[in-house]
Design brief:
It contains 9 helices and 19 strands. The protein is of the alpha+beta class and 426 residues long. The N and C termini lie far apart (52 Å).
Length: 426
Amino acid sequence: MKRLLAALLTLVALAAAAAPAAHAARGLQVISSQRIDDRLTDVVVATPALAAPVHVRILVPAGYAAHPRARYPVLYLLHGALADWRSWTDAGDAERITAGLNAIVVMPEGGNGGWYTNWFNGGVGGPPEWETFHVGRLIPWVDATYRTVARRGGRAIAGLSMGGFGAMSYAARHPGLFVWAASFSGAVDIIHNAPVAAVIAAEAPADGGKPDDQFGNRVAHEIVWRAHNPWDLAGNLRGLVLTLDTGNGQPGPLDDPTRPFDPIEDQVRLMSVSLHNRLGALHIAHTWDDYGPGTHSWPYWRRDLERALPSLTATFAHPRAAPSPFTFTAAEHDYGAYGWRVRLRGARMAFSTLADAGPRGFRLRNAGGRARVTTGPLYRARSAHSVAIGRAAPRTITADRRGRLQIDLRGDATVRIGARAGSLAA
């Protein structure tokens, strides 16, 4: 009887380790969970960020349940337009490709034409809020439910086509969350490519919206488009391990030789080349595979994923430290990166930059009116610091209980922070 009870308890523990918890966590509620096989689970979740429940497909590494104390990094794998959460396993063979990957793979729903953004919706906002769901709700839920390495060095993101845009946009808007990012035939420059704007507008009705609902009108609301565009945010990607893969639209070695020229891959190549050149101009290292003949199709995306795994594995094994000091650009009035926060008051939506931000100070550029900068938790709690703003006389600011300084500014400024002995956080 004791042996039977012990065996039953072991089975319960293994099941709990393998299956997601059915509870609400930070604005996300699990509606149902279906285990497809030993590695693959389909979860249906609901969140106020979206108008209806959506699916998330999750692959755990082999042996996940048998090693209940082990923790694993996570790859977020995003699908393209007019596809869904099943695409990477049903068409992309992701379960076989990742069979030897010692990581969790999360494949969330992103809409037929969601474009991995909180929709503009004519300026009123509201659902669907894909970025809020993926970044603000799903990632915390995965970290709370699965045994993850819940830090930047244990988190990566990749995607194809629309999902390639999403991967690079999320990485550039939230570089403190990801250490590695990859785009496979990604639409990674939606500003300097006229055809893609029409495609994005046309895809909104596939998700029940009106044309231009995702980012607004391309001309009238250009700043909204640029605020999510990987090309405009390329400087934020410094410090990540990056991969860009693209074909040129000509039928290639993985195509039927009778297949015609593919104009979609031709266009995403132009966007990939644009981001590649931008990264090069900024001296940001990245892997660039402009592999020539190849169409906008699954055989190439399966190959892209397979070829990317050695880089991903090496990065998870030896993750790059977050850059310090760092520079971050955004167009919102309230933004943050690497634990820092910038709040602009009374400013129109326009790019501003928190530059050279580190324990000794920072610069704020193009801030407009008043601003408040909250540093990361870099200092001893309640420690006092000499803060000089521009040419003004230094004043003393005390760190809060989390070791952050709150510094109020009037427009652009250079700030120097003095650190007394023992005042920096360990």
